């Protein structure tokens, strides 16, 4: 649930304090991009060369 007034009006990414805000994931709407990119990558398969 978003409780931060800045996150309600804009988003956490547009907030000037997003770099040092300790509660951006708790009371804001911040979602880390790093984990989302890794989840979208397909798993590597080891196929023997024939």
Mean pLDDT: 81
Percent of residues in beta strands: under 5%
Morphology call = rod-shaped
Count of helices? 2
Describe this structure in words.
- There is one protein chain.
- This protein has 50 residues and is mostly helical.
- The chain has helices at 5-9, 33-40.
- It is rod-shaped and about 60 Å long.
- The N and C termini lie far apart (53 Å).
List strands and helices in order, with pairings:
Elements: H1 5-9, H2 33-40
Short description:
The protein is an all-alpha fold. It is built from 2 helices and no strands.
Tags for this model:
single chain; 50 residues; mainly alpha; 2 helices; 0% strand
